[in-house]
Amino acid sequence: MNFNTLLRHFREGTKNVFRNGWMSVASMLSIVVSLSLLGVALLLVLNLDRAADEVDRQVEISVYLNLDIQQADRDRVEQEIRDMPEVQELTFVSKEEGLEEMRETLGDAMVKGYEETGTNPLPDMYKVQVIEATTVPFVADKILALNDGRPEAPIYEVDYGKGTAEKLFQWTQTIRIVGLVLVIGLGVMAMFLIANTIKVTIIARRREIAIMKLVGATNRFIRWPFFIEGVLVGMTGSALTLAILLYAYSRVELAASSWKAALFTMIPLHEIWLWFSILILGLGFLIGAWGSTISIRKFLKV
Amino acid sequence: MQDVWKTYPNGTHALQGVSLQIDRSEFVYVVGPSGAGKSTFMKLIYREEVPTKGQISVNGFNLGKLKQRNIPLLRRNIGVIFQDYRLLPKLTAYENVAFAMEVIEAPRKIMKKRVMEVLDLVGLKNKANREPAHLSGGEQQRVAIARAIVNNPSVIVADEPTGNLDPETSWGIMQLLDEINFRGTTIVMATHNKEIVNTMRKRVLAIENGHVVRDQLRGEYGYEF
Lengths: 302, 225
Ligand SMILES: Nc1ncnc2c1ncn2[C@@H]1O[C@H](COP(=O)(O)OP(=O)(O)OP(=O)(O)O)[C@@H](O)[C@H]1O
Ligand SMILES: [Mg+2]
What we know:
The structure holds two protein chains of two kinds.
Chain A: H1 3-19, H2 21-57, E1 61-65, H3 71-83, E2 87-93, H4 95-106, H5 108-117, E3 125-130, H6 136-144, E4 155-159, H7 164-214, H8 219-257, H9 269-297
Helix pairs in contact in A: 1-8, 2-7, 2-8, 4-5, 7-9, 8-9
Chain B: E1 2-7, E2 13-18, E3 27-31, H1 38-45, E4 53-55, E5 57-58, E6 61-62, H2 71-75, E7 78-82, H3 93-103, H4 108-121, H5 137-149, E8 155-159, H6 167-182, E9 186-190, H7 194-200, E10 203-208, E11 211-216
The structure holds adenosine-5'-triphosphate and magnesium ion (MG).
């Protein structure tokens, strides 16, 4: 194939998009609808997953130390917790800081008495965050086990909101599964929608292909403009989808950011737009290329 | 063509033992009742169908041994014309004719000149930019003829090219084909038009029931309906 012929294929492919006017519009719309469904589902699931993650992360283990703990014991416990592979972060909260926190949550009145008498009933403590939220109960047990075989137990109590935490994990797990099912379901639906559009196009094209073959066109010669036409329709459809989705997302993000009390935050657009664009445009390309290829394969055997 | 048989998958014996030769620059009418096997005979020439048995050779291509991917090469040397024109509906007259030249990857400059030349020959130079839907039947058939001859094929196969046209338009088409034949192109034409066959006095092949029952030079139509 020489360069002129290649140019000719591009020209014909582009012209065909316009020649087939309504058919092109219909195919494009079907791609926009399917990709939008898929895109929305994907964004939804990603955000829910992140929300679930954030909620998970809010579950931390409180390790209360005994009041009469020695500095050396404290350092050893801290080191041992830090060395556990499941542990991500460990923060020391002294009894004074604990009191300060109490003031914030319960109010001045509660704390005043202690301050005036100079007594602080709170122990020193560690706040432990784990890498994988589901390991919280296990890690909590492991930390408590540090007391074993010590004459003077360094740890007074380990607490992680038993029960509530477990319920929360179940809930976030459910969200993840539902999201996955949603994405797969909509993906299958999108495929059916597109396959159907292709079927309609095929029937309209059957006669034309037969004529081209009678005039002596090779399969490759017929295929190229179809391919380019399909890719153009697919890419235009996906670009349109992308514009709609990104705009809508930015609006929702804006609205959500003013909503202070939120338990979690949305994924910022700038973090996802690049790969999301590549994904949607790539899908548009694939749908167009795949659609045009399979739609004419049948009729080339004339 | 040597002892050619064609049986369709449904069991119809469309051709039964046809042997004949058509020479370069001949003009041959193929006549016979409906369902006799005329179209089948034509389809075998441009290899839309393959014979169940027997040998066919066209332009030095042995069709029995022709590979699938070489079929386009054969067809570029055969111009085909049909009763229903078979133009690409979304292309203009010019683009339809040019398509046949694009297929052989002709340089654009030569193509432009040649397409206008043949459109002029069939008398449609000033309607080059119309789509088939905006042309009359006779004009569409002229576009089809222009497309068939644009690459200077050695053979033209025409299956009832005047089947849908009124007598006057038919004569115009016949004159055109005669002229093309005069320039050295072999023409094989199936027809039911008695008047045309009897007036032109060319070789006539009569097919009935899948057999060649008559082969006359300067023949007549020979059927009365
Ligand atoms: N694709 C096909 N499959 C099965 N049978 C066919 C096919 N094409 C033609 N036939 C049968 O083969 C026989 C010859 O058909 P053909 O089309 O060659 O006739 P014809 O002489 O061209 O008729 P007409 O003058 O009506 O065009 C007919 O009996 C027809 O029904
Ligand atoms: Mg016929």
